[in-house]
């Protein structure tokens, strides 16, 4: 089957690679080639993903994981959550009999590793290039830099503002949470445990992603206005704000010299359809974007890819596209509703919500089989 993948980020590149390894003829169209990973600095880029255990194993099977520099991936063994009123719950990989719950990985490093494997698999890479138009009836795509391409299947992996979805006439629904997420990469004086954690408070949570024993990505959710005003005040104000939040937990730290902080708006959307014209499917953020508080965005995208590749191996395209949508929409919507429940539930000031959270935490902590099940679900198992 001739397959064109539009978008060469983590999800698009992994889709192209998995499909090529499954025996399909694949062309990838991407505007910008991933940047080189510098060996001269330990500073991480701010675009970081939490890849759970199952997807890490899948990336290893694709031959990708070993190509990611060890300085740009870091395994974590625990995940801790604390509610507004101080109720705490910690999940450990040991609860499920594993060494790690998952890995923090620099997006650019993982994307570069994926592209190295794409070249090894002799996937056709059209970069820099961009889609100019698509004829759905003739199943051809015209780009700005090369000859038109014929395809049997076209995958839109071009992100939350997918031009592929718009060209296919696929609408979406969703909303803005009215918050921004600030990310700041820091260097700590004290050694950090291999634990990622999140603490909820009125107005939005704050969290830590460990990047190595003395580096972390600090995350601060607040209203869009508050984060914008903070960034306008400059480095000293940002460091002071973060120190007030995080120093009681991790001691003193400094912003890393480069790529130290940035922020992005928190939004949620879902495509009204995942496929159209019997020849195009949306994958990853093009089909769904989710609140980032549990780090599930890229994991859902990788799961989309695995579902589609698996179904293409046993069924014809006319059957695959609706089956893919039926399976993935249900699972993605379930995760999106869970993130909304966490977002609004943990932010609630009502006593009933607080009592409910405390009761759930206590129940999970006191029932090892349930806790093990929750841990395995968080690991994608």
From TrEMBL:
It comes from the Bacteria. The keyword Flavoprotein applies. It holds the Pfam family FAD_binding_3. InterPro entries: FAD-bd, FAD/NAD-bd_sf, Ubi_Hdrlase_CS, UbiH/COQ6, UbiH/COQ6_monooxygenase. Its cofactor is FAD. Pathway: Cofactor biosynthesis; ubiquinone biosynthesis. GO terms for biological process: ubiquinone biosynthetic process. Residues 2-337 form the FAD-binding domain. Coiled coil: none annotated. Keywords: FAD, Flavoprotein, Monooxygenase, Oxidoreductase. One of its GO terms (molecular function) is FAD binding. PANTHER family: 3-DEMETHOXYUBIQUINOL 3-HYDROXYLASE, UBIQUINONE BIOSYNTHESIS MONOOXYGENASE COQ6, MITOCHONDRIAL. Belongs to the UbiH/COQ6 family. This is 2-octaprenyl-3-methyl-6-methoxy-1,4-benzoquinol hydroxylase. It comes from Pseudidiomarina planktonica. The lineage of its organism: Bacteria, Pseudomonadati, Pseudomonadota, Gammaproteobacteria, Alteromonadales.
């Amino acid at each position: 089957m001739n397959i064109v993948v539009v978008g060469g980020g983590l999800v698009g590149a992994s889709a192209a690679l998995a499909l090529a390894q499954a025996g399909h003829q694949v062309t990838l169209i991407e505007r910008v080639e991933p940047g080189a990973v510098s060996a001269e600095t330990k500073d991480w880029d701010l675009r970081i993903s939490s890849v759970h255990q199952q997807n890490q194993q899948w990336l290893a099977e694709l031959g990708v994981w070993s190509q990611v520099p060890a300085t740009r991936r870091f395994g974590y063994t625990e995940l801790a959550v604390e509610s507004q009123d101080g109720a705490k719950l910690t999940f450990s990989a040991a609860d499920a009999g594993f060494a790690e719950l998952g890995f923090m990985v620099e997006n650019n490093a993982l994307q570069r590793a994926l592209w190295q494997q794409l070249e090894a698999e002799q996937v056709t890479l059209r970069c820099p290039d961009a889609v100019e138009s698509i004829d759905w009836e003739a199943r051809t795509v015209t780009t700005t830099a090369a000859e038109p391409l014929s395809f049997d299947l076209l995958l839109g992996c071009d992100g939350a503002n997918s031009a592929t979805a718009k060209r296919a006439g696929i609408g979406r629904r969703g909303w803005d949470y009215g918050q921004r997420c600030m990310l700041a990469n820091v260097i700590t004086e004290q050694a950090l445990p291999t634990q990622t954690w999140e603490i909820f408070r009125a107005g939005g949570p704050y969290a830590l992603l460990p990047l190595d024993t003395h580096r972390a990505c600090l995350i601060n959710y607040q209203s869009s206005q508050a984060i914008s005003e903070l960034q306008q005040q400059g480095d000293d104000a940002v460091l002071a704000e973060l120190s007030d939040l995080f120093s009681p937990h991790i001691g003193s730290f400094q912003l890393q010299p480069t790529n130290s902080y940035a922020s992005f708006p928190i939004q949620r959307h879902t495509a009204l359809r995942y496929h159209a014209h019997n020849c195009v499917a949306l994958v990853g953020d093009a089909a769904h974007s989710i609140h980032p508080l549990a780090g599930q965005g890229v994991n859902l995208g990788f799961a989309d890819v695995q579902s589609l590749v698996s179904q293409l191996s046993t069924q014809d395209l006319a059957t695959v596209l609706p089956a893919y949508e039926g399976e993935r929409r249900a699972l993605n919507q379930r995760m999106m509703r869970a993130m909304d429940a966490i977002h609004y539930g943990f932010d609630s000031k009502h006593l009933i919500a607080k009592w409910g959270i405390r009761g759930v935490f206590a129940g999970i902590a006191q029932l090892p089989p349930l806790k093990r099940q929750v841990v395995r679900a968080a690991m994608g198992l």
